[in-house]
Structure formats: structure tokens, C-alpha cells
Amino acid sequence: MAxxxxxxxxxxxxxxxxxxxxxxxxxxxxxxxxxLYLTVLSAAPAPAPEPAAQTTAVAEAPAPAADASTxxxxxxxxxxxxxxxxxxxxxxxxxxxxxxxxxxxxxKVAERKAAIAAKSYEIDWLMLILTAVVVIGYFVFLVRxxxxxxxxxxxxxxxxxxxxxxxxxx
Length: 170
Fold this sequence. Notes:
By secondary structure, the chain is an all-alpha fold. The protein has helices at 14-41, 65-80, 89-101, 106-120, 125-158. 62% of the residues lie in helices and 0% in strands.
């Protein structure tokens, strides 16, 4: 009786492997670009910032020489003390000046912070459930297809199963 030839799985060429790899990379890049377009680029454009108003420095009267060192030390101590948001007085002043130059007042800044905080933690439950169903469905498909292919390989390699007899008992 002739013994069956040993099983040789099909081989993929190097060109096929390269094509598969590049195709997967292209799909990942396309997915990321579509997500970027849907979330960032399709949003309404922000209004153009208004031109900064010219500010004029107010000239202060020079302090007496004896008080100058005391005032400088006091100003440095106040500027070095961090505020509630972790910024020093100088940093807070610079931040306020920059927001003012952009035409943003405290109310607008607070409104934007609230909008960002509200948007950051939203969960679309329908999309979450849909994503879970798709992932679970794909997993079930993958397991069933792999099981079918495994049974085909076993049948090709060892022949069809005949009853409950195993290879070891024959």
C-alpha cells in the first residue's frame, strides 16, 4: 500500500507578501485619514482672530532709590508664588495678555474650556455597541473559518476521520 505524500502547505511568493503588507499599511493610513477628516476637518472652521489692539505702556513715576529694591523684592516674591492653576503671577499676566491680544476675554476662555471638557468625555453608546458587535462578529467568523480550514488540513494530511478510532490505536 502506497503511503500518502507528506503534506506541503501552499507557499506565497515574496511579491505577494510585499503586496499584502503594503495593502495593509495603505488601509491603516486610509482609516486614520478618514477619522481625521470626520473629526477635525469637517468641523466648522473657527472664526479668524481679530487683530490685536495696540496697547500703550503707561509711564510710571520712578520710585525713590530706597524703595526701589524693596519694591523689586516684593514683586519678585509675588511673581514667584504659583496661583491656583500652577502659574506664577508673571506667567498668568503673560497668558492674559496673549488671550486679550487674540480678542478673548475671561468669559470666552471659560466657555471654550467648558466646551472642551464636555466634548472630551462624551461616549456615543450606539457607536460603542455597534463597534463591539462588529468586533465580536469578526472574531466568531475568524474562529469558524479557522476551524473549517484546520479540519480540511487534518483531512488532507491524515485522511478523513473514521469513527472514534485514533491514529495511536491503529
